[in-house]
Amino acid sequence: MDREEKTYDLFETEKERTVTTKTNNHSQLKKFDFDDILDQAEATAHTQKVPEKPVKAAGRAKEEPEEKKRSKKKKSDYVELDLDGNPVTGTDEQKEKIYRRDRRRAVGSVLLGILGWIKELAIALVIVWFVITFVAQNNKVVGTSMQPTVYANDMVIVNKFIYRFTAPVRGDVIVFPSVENGEKVFLIKRIIGLPGDVIDLRDGKVFVNDIELVEKYIAVETTPISGQVSFPVTVPDDCYFVLGDNRIVSKDSRYRSIGMVPKSRIVGKASLRIWPFKNIGFIE
Question: Lower CB density within 10 Å: C or N end of the chain?
Answer without folding.
Answer: N
